[in-house]
From TrEMBL:
PANTHER family in alphabetical order: GLPR-RELATED TRANSCRIPTIONAL REPRESSOR, SCHLAFEN ALBA-2 DOMAIN-CONTAINING PROTEIN
Highest taxon of the lineage: Bacteria
Stretches assigned to the Schlafen AlbA-2 domain: 13-122
Protein name: Winged helix-turn-helix transcriptional regulator
InterPro entries given in the database record: RecG_C_sf (IPR038475), Schlafen_AlbA_2_dom (IPR007421), Schlafen_AlbA_2_dom_sf (IPR038461), WH-like_DNA-bd_sf (IPR036388), WH_DNA-bd_sf (IPR036390)
């Protein structure tokens, strides 16, 4: 549908905005990426600084562009089109909503919108996005080349017994019936979840690498496990307990009180989340690193496209397990209490333990969590310290950047741009100025490092 309306041009490109000076294949790529993410709009006739340069439009031009978009996309995209004049220059606005059947491709290639850029999707990402669309998941599919001979019936019985202890009225009597009831087997075929839950032999698909570090570069102990994912929960917890501190608090009671360095229930929740939501189609491994002052967990597989870290922290999201069958079994044996409450519980457990909330962020193609062993200075005290130190030395925008960094040392320039209300390029310019003034330092690489206010 073509309409003539008056719009304003956003200040900068974002998760839902793209600027193009002319109509070209990159316009269609952006529309595909928006359709595969949260929807968005492409402003044709606008440069990357948000300045209207105009575009020449003939009688049939826009209709030809629409036909080209439909021909080059699958399923065919039909965006909304608006044409208007901005400061004497003609601008064409193409907009699309989230597409109901995903992913959408451009000439057989798939893209998704991440921050203010279009990213090519991997085969695994394409498969996961399609499975979510049809309300299924990879772990429900049958495992090629493996049969019930490749799983341990002792492990099946152990899990079945755990389910029966929680629900004595379950209307099945044997482990074999349990496997069929849960759709884990069909004849001799086994699902991907069945293999990961009950594998007879170690498998690289479930590998978790764990290390105890004296410093960022000196490792004191390392263990790699590749067993079934139910057993892995306790093996990871055993490694954590081995390498974190425990204090004995002497009281006037008959028994003294034990207090661990971290809330073990919170750590267990993070470990369970890591195992349940892992992208098992990825070639990467999950990792856990224990440092003197923190524990870092990394898991292959990003958050679902409709959920951001900000959604997690504000509890503004609907749970969307990557592996539905695994999540279902973990819930039935009591490792998951209720879908969508894990992160909220973890944050509260750490606060109740007198520790800061864990730090969550997306890194590359995975999810990163860092928990700290001692409280960080309260944000108000940190902000006061920063304000007192830099008053008169920095602009208002630079002050906003420093304040935001004190609250999240892993914050990205894209998020800073949205918070401050300026372009990402200007954020980078301001950060460089703060570095030159000796007020800010980047610790580590661009990906995986963090900010330090000096």
């Amino acid at each position: 549908m073509i309409e003539t309306t008056i719009y304003t041009i956003p200040h900068h490109e974002s998760e839902k905005v793209e600027f193009k000076t002319s109509f070209q294949d990159e316009v269609i790529v952006s529309l595909v990426a928006f359709a595969n993410a949260k929807g968005g709009a492409v402003y044709v006739g606008v440069d990357d600084k948000g300045v209207a340069k105009g575009v020449s439009i003939g009688k049939e031009t826009v209709q030809k562009w629409l036909n080209e978009i439909k021909v080059k996309t699958q399923p065919a995209l039909v965006p909304e089109v608006d044409i208007w004049e901005h400061q004497g220059q003609q601008v064409v606005l193409f907009s699309v909503a989230v597409y109901p059947i995903k992913p959408v491709s451009f000439k057989g290639k798939y893209y998704k919108r991440v921050s203010n850029a279009n990213h090519p999707m991997s085969v695994a990402e394409v498969a996961q996005m399609h499975l979510r669309t049809v309300n299924s998941s990879w772990d429900y599919f049958w495992r090629n080349g493996l049969t019930t001979a490749d799983i341990s019936l002792d492990k099946v019985k152990k899990v079945f017994d755990m389910v029966r202890r929680r629900n004595s009225n379950i209307p099945i009597d044997t482990s074999e019936q349990f496997l069929k009831k849960q759709e884990l087997v069909h004849g001799k075929q086994i699902s991907n979840a069945c293999y990961l839950l009950f594998c007879k032999e170690d498998t690289y698909h479930t590998t978790i690498q764990m290390g105890h570090f004296a410093s960022e570069t000196v490792i004191k102990d390392d263990v790699t496990i590749s067993t079934d994912i139910v057993t892995e929960v306790e093996e990871v917890m055993n490694f954590v307990r081995k390498h974190i501190n425990k204090e004995i608090i002497i009281t006037d009671q008959l028994e003294n009180t034990e207090r661990w360095q971290y809330p073990l229930e919170g750590i267990r929740e993070l470990v369970v989340n890591m195992i349940v939501h892992r992208d098992y189609m990825s070639g990467g491994h999950s990792t856990i690193k224990i440092f003197p002052d923190s524990i870092v967990l990394f898991n292959p597989g990003p958050l679902p496209d409709h959920i951001t870290v900000e959604n997690l922290l504000s509890d503004d999201y609907v749970s969307s397990p990557r592996n539905l069958q695994i999540a279902k079994i973990f819930k039935e044996i009591g490792l998951i209490e209720r879908y969508g409450t894990g992160i909220k519980r973890v944050r509260q457990l750490f606060l109740n333990h007198g520790l800061p909330e864990p730090l969550f962020k997306m890194v590359q193609d995975g999810f990163f969590v860092r928990v700290l062993t001692s409280p960080i200075s309260g944000s108000d005290r940190v902000t006061d310290k920063v304000t007192g130190k830099v008053t008169g030395k920095v602009t208002d925008n630079q002050q906003k950047i420093l304040t935001a960094i004190t609250k999240d040392i892993y914050i990205t320039t894209a998020i800073l741009a949205d918070m401050v209300g300026i372009s990402q390029r200007k954020i980078k310019d301001n950060i460089q100025t703060l570095k030159e003034k000796g007020l800010l330092e980047r610790i580590g690489p661009a990906k995986g490092g963090y900010w330090k206010v000096l």
